[in-house]
Automatic annotation (TrEMBL):
Annotated ranges, domain Ketoreductase: 10-180
Keyword Membrane included in the entry's annotation: no
MF terms (GO), sorted A to Z: oxidoreductase activity
Pfam families found in the cross-reference section: adh_short_C2 (PF13561)
Family of the protein in this entry: Belongs to the short-chain dehydrogenases/reductases (SDR) family.
InterPro entries per record: KR_dom (IPR057326), NAD(P)-bd_dom_sf (IPR036291), Sc_DH/Rdtase_CS (IPR020904), SDR_fam (IPR002347)
Protein's UniProt name: SDR family oxidoreductase
PROSITE patterns, A to Z: ADH_SHORT (PS00061)
Sorted UniProt keywords: Oxidoreductase
Length: 254
């Protein structure tokens, strides 16, 4: 059963809303009747949504972005991401920029949006990551930033209640290019199917799965400070996978 929501007359901002999970979230709110604004550094086909070019790591850009709203009911802090960058031997500036995008930026957007959200009794949804809740080798700065984002959301939920609700969607392994085949390119051939097999639900999350959680958390209600995991049950531990696939285990493992 699919739950439907009515956001007619509501103003929604989705950061990083031109591709991947962000585009799926923006589309879901638009289909629910909302007036949707997406911001990013590069535009995409509008689909009836307003686009604002902005770098959410820059306070001046964020201030200009929020100044363009007369009313704001929902902010989805989705902009984020990282390249694979092991900490040793890579530029400190790269890791600083990763933290700026995944932690400082949502803090800035939330801070500037607060007066409008408080006036409307609105909601903020942070898009978190399983990388912030478990070891994230090769993306340590990203994992640390997402862990910080999860905690930031809980702090703001307590600080801004009852005027503004703040919740987090913690996304697990996700096919962020379900419509374009980007995931297959990223994981290599049928790698996306093999990665999906590591999820108890049997597949990776899609942008639509994440969007459904956002629609629920942004709707008027009591829930604030919550962390909703959209991960299909998590990730099957390697030892469990090997136990079910003895053909993959080596006799040399002790």
């Amino acid at each position: 059963m699919t739950v439907t929501y009515d956001y007619t007359g509501k103003s929604v901002l989705v950061t990083g809303g031109t591709k991947g999970i962000g585009a799926g979230i923006a589309r879901a709110f638009r289909e629910a009747g909302a007036d949707v604004t997406v911001c990013a550094r590069t535009p995409a086909p509008s689909g009836g949504m307003r686009f604002v070019r902005a770098d959410v790591r820059a306070a001046d850009d964020v201030e200009r972005l929020i100044a363009g709203f007369e009313r704001l009911d929902v902010v989805v802090n989705n902009a984020g991401g990282t390249p694979h960058a092991p900490l040793a031997g890579t530029s400190p500036r790269l890791h600083a920029r990763v933290i700026e995008l995944n932690l400082t930026a949502p803090l800035l957007v939330s801070q500037y949006a607060y007066p409008l959200l408080a006036e409307s009794g609105g909601a903020i949804v942070m898009i978190g990551s399983a990388s912030g809740a478990r070891p994230s080798p090769g993306t340590s700065a990203y994992g640390a930033a997402k862990a910080g984002l999860h905690h930031l959301a809980r702090c703001l939920a307590a600080e801004w209640a009852p005027l503004v609700r703040v919740n987090t969607v913690i996304v697990g392994l996700a096919d962020t290019g379900a419509e374009t085949g980007e995931a297959a390119d990223h994981y290599g051939g049928h790698g996306d199917e093999r990665i999906g097999a590591a999820v108890p639900a049997g597949r990776m999350a899609t942008p639509a799965d994440v969007a459904q959680a956002c629609l629920w958390l942004a709707a008027p209600g009591y829930v604030t400070g919550a962390q909703v995991r959209v991960d299909g049950g998590g990730e099957i531990p390697a030892w469990s996978y090997l136990a079910r696939r003895p053909d993959l285990a080596s006799d040399d493992i002790s």
